[in-house]
Specification:
Elements lengths: L13 E9 L5 E9 L5 E7 L5 E9 L5 E8 L4 E7 L5 E8 L2 E7 L5 E6 L2 E3 L11 E6 L5 E7 L5 E9 L5 E7 L2 H5 L5 E7 L5 E9 L5 E12 L5 E9 L8 E12 L6
Antiparallel strand pairs: 1-2, 1-19, 2-3, 3-4, 4-5, 5-6, 6-7, 7-8, 8-9, 9-10, 11-12, 12-13, 13-14, 14-15, 15-16, 16-17, 17-18, 18-19
């Protein structure tokens, strides 16, 4: 699908971004390279392993109007993993996957409905995913479309859970309470509570998750995120920490994410 600098939490005129990950022990998890055009569209994404050797890449092809036509995922040895084409409205037109010499193609109409499926270029029967329960959902939204209440039901009609949310002025979730029954909702006894905090750049800085322990209390896990920014207000380092019973309720660094951003002015921050 089409991706832009906004999807990657970037602003400004970006040419390229290098995204790398290490942990508190200094383990190198490799890096990713994202290449953008002048309109901010992602044109190519590359993954490199911990030895900094190429693993795979995705190429995005656009027409002169900036409409995504095709995306291709290829392994470093040139093996094609999948190729997808799109309608002008962004819906899939055709998806093709390749596994061990076999090919699987699906054709869609412009509304996203499956028209025909092929296996090794022969028409195959359209099958439903046996693991897709087609859960029914009911949504309650506010005037701007933000989901205030979300109710899930199993395919056989039994209630799964009820989620209530509150938002800030940027339509970011501040709190999310989940109830396992109508009675729990009426009594305001949530099974899980999630609280989010954000900084002035609208990035998540703390996420607290309380989950019922079955004995009237809660198990708490807190995730903290510490950012550093460049002069363009794009983050260039994010330290991710976890705090719960496993860590002795002390902040433990899990990962350190770094971004090297090259702007169209050829300056790197």
């Amino acid at each position: 699908m089409k991706k832009t600098i906004t999807d990657d939490e970037l602003t400004g005129n970006i040419r390229q971004m290098k995204y790398s990950t290490t942990d508190s022990a200094g383990t190198d998890y490799g890096y990713e390279l994202s290449h953008y055009d002048a309109q901010g569209n992602l044109r190519k994404w590359e993954m490199y392993n911990e030895q900094h050797k190429p693993v795979k890449n995705i190429v995005y092809d656009f027409d002169d109007r900036g409409v995504l036509l095709e995306e291709r995922l290829t392994q470093s040895d040139g093996t094609l993993v999948y190729k997808n084409t799109f309608y002008n409205n962004g819906q899939y037109k055709e998806t093709c996957e390749y596994h061990n010499g076999d090919s699987y193609k699906t054709m869609y109409d412009e509304a996203g409905n499956v028209k025909t499926q092929f296996e090794n270029e022969e028409v195959s029967e359209i099958e439903e995913d046996p693991y897709n329960e087609q859960w029914e959902t009911k949504k309650v939204t506010d005037t701007d479309g933000s989901i205030m209440e979300l109710v899930y039901y199993h395919s056989f009609g039994q209630l799964y859970d009820i989620t209530k949310r509150k938002y800030n002025d940027q339509q970011q979730v501040l709190s999310e309470l989940t109830y396992d029954s109508e009675d729990a909702l009426a009594a305001d006894k949530p099974d899980a509570i999630k609280i989010n905090e954000y900084n002035e750049h609208h990035h998540l800085t703390m996420y607290t998750h309380d989950h019922a322990d079955g004995a009237g209390g809660f198990h708490r896990t807190t995730f903290r995120y510490v950012f550093q920014y460049d002069d363009q207000h794009n983050w260039i380092e994010k330290v991710e920490m976890m705090n719960n019973k496993i860590t002795g309720y002390e902040d433990l660094i899990q990962f350190i994410r770094k971004r090297e951003i090259e702007y169209l002015s050829s300056s790197i921050h």
